[in-house]
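Case 200 in the screening queue. Each case pairs one protein sequence with one candidate compound; here the compound is glutamine. For every case the pipeline is the same: read the inputs, emit a complex structure as tokens, and attach any notable structural observations.

Predict complex for case 200.
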Amino acid sequence: MTDYSAYTVGVLALQGAVTEHMRQIEQLGATALAVKTVEQLALLDGLILPGGESTAIGRLMRHYGFIEAIRDFARQRKPLFGTCAGMILLAKAIEGGEAAHLQLMDIRVQRNAFGRQTDSFQTDLKVKGLAQPFPAVFIRAPYIRHITSSAVEKLAEFNGNTVLAKQDNLLACAFHPELTDDLSIMRLFLTMIEQARPHR
Ligand code: GLN
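Case 200 output:
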């Protein structure tokens, strides 16, 4: 197993599913940090934007100065991983005219894309680069409606819509990998971190 003990991965802890991500980070041997202030970003090799409510998290991010600070973090080529609401926060555009948040990733997302009937569900997804299907849990999930640059690589689709994608140091996922026992998507993110800052 790869040794990730040299890395510290933050989880933005303003609102949402924070502890489950921290548990997976630790299971893979890295250090997990709940991030509540912009100063903590300097300690991190990578940052996760968790699921929750994107409007609420976005408002708190603006209030605490995280919008500019995280944009700066991304400019330093440090990896960011947005899950569910976190994916919405990363997007350059949101369907329906709502103002976008970090505006980092060349995707246009649709919030609550699966409708009321299918509020939440689990399905086995084929993910590019993974040997086994991934048990994906969707909770009032968004999906990627449009990919707006060729720099975005599609890693998984559900019913023809992109639900996992990567663009350079950015990873975005419509579902909740932290709610399963399968660590392979978190491992994918740690591989991105390792590539950004090779182990010394
Ligand atoms: N529906 C939420 C939003 O639009 C996202 C849900 C989630 O993160 N599980 O922000």
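Case 200 observations:
- The first strand starts at residue 8 and ends at 12.
- The mean pLDDT is 96.
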